[in-house]
UniProtKB/TrEMBL annotation:
<keyword id="KW-0808">Transferase</keyword>
<dbReference type="InterPro" id="IPR000182">
    <property type="entry name" value="GNAT_dom"/>
</dbReference>
<keyword id="KW-1133">Transmembrane helix</keyword>
<feature type="domain" description="N-acetyltransferase">
    <location>
        <begin position="285"/>
        <end position="456"/>
    </location>
</feature>
<keyword id="KW-0472">Membrane</keyword>
<feature type="transmembrane region" description="Helical">
    <location>
        <begin position="194"/>
        <end position="212"/>
    </location>
</feature>
<feature type="transmembrane region" description="Helical">
    <location>
        <begin position="163"/>
        <end position="182"/>
    </location>
</feature>
<feature type="transmembrane region" description="Helical">
    <location>
        <begin position="128"/>
        <end position="151"/>
    </location>
</feature>
<feature type="transmembrane region" description="Helical">
    <location>
        <begin position="72"/>
        <end position="90"/>
    </location>
</feature>
<feature type="transmembrane region" description="Helical">
    <location>
        <begin position="218"/>
        <end position="236"/>
    </location>
</feature>
<feature type="transmembrane region" description="Helical">
    <location>
        <begin position="7"/>
        <end position="26"/>
    </location>
</feature>
<dbReference type="GO" id="GO:0016747">
    <property type="term" value="F:acyltransferase activity, transferring groups other than amino-acyl groups"/>
</dbReference>
<keyword id="KW-0812">Transmembrane</keyword>
<feature type="transmembrane region" description="Helical">
    <location>
        <begin position="96"/>
        <end position="116"/>
    </location>
</feature>
<protein>
    <submittedName>
        <fullName>GNAT family N-acetyltransferase</fullName>
    </submittedName>
</protein>
<dbReference type="InterPro" id="IPR016181">
    <property type="entry name" value="Acyl_CoA_acyltransferase"/>
</dbReference>
<feature type="transmembrane region" description="Helical">
    <location>
        <begin position="278"/>
        <end position="299"/>
    </location>
</feature>
Length: 456
């Protein structure tokens, strides 16, 4: 059953994407004058029934295990996602476009994910922006009678004083551009590439405005220079092996800023003109922020703005500190945190409190390489209240530097499969991962995980 282990998790996200694909197939093959959203609903239910039937057959034949409670919650999350995505896909045929907005849909998904899967707020960007956008969109609908989906002549707006709408649209501008500018600032990318990109974005944003009336050749030159330096930055950083995916997110944000400001230019916003087309700014930011959230998850990116750094110091383990570890973390941690000639153990301390530790020892490789030594990380742990603050990375980096100075050619460790954050950390620190099953004699069980190794 090993190859089906993550099947329920995969299916939960398949449920999300079913409605739009079913809609596309129904549009292709529907010949009678039937309502497309009704037919798509029937097809969607049939597909879900078939999937359920196949899963049931596989479980009774012991080909697939019965989902545990966590997997059941994941499947329920997928079914709820299937429902909300269905309503979003068919909002126009069902005349729900002013109710079922992208802001409401994503908020529902975030809330359901929080209560069903993780009682922990992540994706702060969406949690901040979506309620604000939903409030502004609702206010706009109450004032004008039209929402974003009504643009293009499908709705005749109510008469509202221009100054009132201009203030509302100005709020959209301040929030969207202000928030993205703040996120770019938090990168503090004050090297040549960051300053060059920000400068070109600012200059282009100024010259494309109607009130400046700049020559098109100047705007074209700035645009070409902007693209050239972005590509050059990627080339240089990849060749010098200093590229990180944070660079990609940085350019996504600065490019989005330029797109938003160019839309303001189209609307003549800075000379006092604005209409309902300004709502597109919120839609763009929502989709881009949602895309960034997905990229950060897939590529294991932690933006500088999302990480609060703990104010800690690194110290070499002493007997007194080892006894503190026993008192606060238990006997197992105490036994693994050793002191010796071939052992290097470090602790992270904040306000006289041990918040993390690592212990590594050297050992020879197996034959025929028994003359070659390696460093093996015996234990690494960070207090749960201090995780994702750079502590584990610092402990590992300090350990790597120590053994590199000792002439040790490689460092190795092992993480069980359930330590998802640890595995993501090893990958982010450029360790090579090898799936491995180990046997624990004391418990007589096999544990799946990864050996991780890095050349020093």
């Amino acid at each position: 059953m090993k190859k089906f282990k993550r099947l329920y998790y995969i299916l939960s996200y398949v449920f999300f994407i079913l409605p739009p694909f079913i809609w596309g197939l129904v549009e292709l093959y529907l010949e009678r004058d039937w309502k497309v959203h009704v037919v798509s609903l029937v097809v969607n239910l049939i597909v879900l029934f078939i999937i359920t039937l196949v899963l049931w057959i596989l479980t009774i034949k012991n080909v697939l295990h019965v989902p545990n409670k966590e997997e059941q919650r994941q499947l329920l999350f997928g079914l709820i996602g299937n429902t909300v995505v269905y309503f979003y896909t068919f909002q126009n045929p069902m005349n729900l476009q002013n109710v079922v907005t992208i802001y409401l849909i994503l908020l529902i998904i975030l809330v359901v994910r929080y209560y069903l899967l993780k009682r922990k707020i992540s994706n702060y960007e969406l949690w901040i922006l979506l309620p604000i956008f939903l409030l502004i969109d609702t206010l706009h609908i109450l004032l004008t009678g039209c929402g974003f989906s009504n643009l293009g002549g499908y709705c005749v707006p109510n008469e509202v004083p221009h100054v009132v709408l201009y203030l509302l649209y100005s709020t959209i501008v301040v929030i969207t551009i202000g928030y993205y500018a703040y996120k770019v600032y938090l990168y503090r990318r004050w090297n040549f590439w960051g300053i060059t990109n920000i400068t070109l974005v600012v200059l282009t944003s100024i010259f494309i405005q109607e009130i400046v009336d700049a020559d098109e050749k100047i705007i074209g030159t700035l645009t070409i220079a902007l693209a050239f330096f972005v590509i050059l930055d990627f080339i240089v950083s990849i060749v010098n092996k200093v590229y990180t995916h944070r660079t990609l997110i940085f350019y996504v944000r600065t490019t989005t800023l330029l797109i938003l400001i160019s839309l303001l230019s189209e609307e003549d916003f800075f000379i006092g003109q604005a209409d309902e087309d300004m709502l597109v700014l919120m839609v763009i930011v929502t989709y881009v922020s949602f895309g960034i959230t997905i990229l950060k998850s897939l590529l294991h990116i932690t933006e500088e703005a999302d990480t609060t750094k703990a104010n800690f110091t690194i110290e070499i383990l002493t007997e007194d500190l080892r006894n503190q570890i026993k008192e606060n973390y238990g006997d197992v941690a105490y036994d693994y945190m050793e002191i010796g000639d071939n052992i290097y153990s470090l602790i992270a301390i904040e306000d006289n409190t041990i918040i993390g530790f690592i212990s590594t020892y050297t050992q020879p490789l197996k034959e025929p390489l028994e003359d070659t030594m390696e460093a093996y990380i015996n234990i690494i742990e960070v207090h749960k209240d201090y995780r994702r603050q750079g502590i584990a990375s610092t402990l590992i980096n300090e350990t790597e530097h120590y053994f590199k100075r000792q002439g040790i050619p490689q460092i190795r460790a092992w993480s069980s499969m359930d330590k998802v954050e640890a595995i993501q950390l090893w990958q982010a620190l450029n360790y090579n991962l090898s799936p491995t099953t180990i046997h624990i004699d004391s418990k007589n069980v096999n544990v799946e995980g990864y050996y991780v190794v890095k050349s020093l």
